[in-house]
Design a protein that fits this description.
Growth Hormone, Chain: A; about 240 residues; mainly alpha
Length: about 240
């Protein structure tokens, strides 16, 4: 799911990647909204809030939103640097460090919010989560060759609308098959993002910020599963 790239990736790989990481993004997003009232998986809204606070001369608040925007950008940049560097060393494990850092960040924020709520400010929490989601979106984009994006839906709905309209114009069966695959992939990302948000909302009622620990655990199991499967296939082939 994570190790395959380029021609080695299949539709199934992208579908599993989309389902897992978009649901994880939904969990993180709803936890950020419920705990600190900040969207933590995209930056579109933060541009609007930045402009609003700037127009009201609330410069300190405007700077906060600017920091949120650059936190997501920095996460994306950092993940890409790691992926490119480790690809040159060992292609099959280039995703491992980025995934591990994201897992540590989500677990740490969830743990400290749960047990030491007064240590971290809302601004630090939001920036950390946006950094982690920037890492995730960059990693997924690179792994899937820009086929899968998991942390924001605006572009997905745009692409989905375009592709649905194209169903009326593509007549060849093969063209329609390719189009339906793309539509189904986008629907999977949207659906699992919503499901992750709904699940996160219910979990937050019972474990509050511990929902982030659940999100990090899901990623950890996914990473370990990928590693174990790699070794399993090596044993089978040997």
């Amino acid at each position: 799911m994570f190790r395959h790239k380029g021609k080695n990736r299949t539709y199934k790989h992208n579908l599993l990647l989309a389902a897992l990481l978009s649901s994880n993004a939904g969990l993180v997003n709803i936890t950020g909204v419920l705990s600190i009232s900040v969207l933590t998986t995209n930056v579109t809204g933060h541009f609007a809030f930045f402009s609003e606070q700037l127009s009201l001369h609330h410069y300190d608040l405007a700077i906060n939103f600017l920091i949120y925007i650059f936190s997501f950008l920095l996460g994306s940049f950092f993940s890409s640097i790691l992926t490119e560097y480790f690809e040159a060393k060992e292609k099959k494990t280039s995703h491992g460090l980025s995934m591990s850092i994201e897992i540590i960040l989500l677990f740490s924020v969830g743990y400290y919010l749960k047990y030491y709520n007064n240590i971290l400010s809302p601004e630090v929490i939001a920036s950390t989560l946006l950094f982690a989601m920037g890492m995730q979106n960059s990693l997924v984009t690179q792994i899937s060759s820009s086929t899968v994006r998991t942390t924001h839906l605006t572009g997905l709905f745009t692409d989905l609308g375009i592709e649905l309209s194209q169903l009326f114009f593509h007549k060849k069966i093969e063209e329609k098959k390719i189009l339906w695959k793309s539509i189904n992939l986008r629907l999977a990302i949207i659906t699992f993002f919503f499901l992750g948000g709904i699940l996160g909302g219910f979990l937050y009622k019972y474990i509050q910020e511990g929902t982030l620990i659940v999100a990090s655990t899901i990623l950890l199991f996914a990473l370990l599963f990928d590693v174990f499967r790699k070794h399993y296939y090596k044993i089978i082939r040997s």
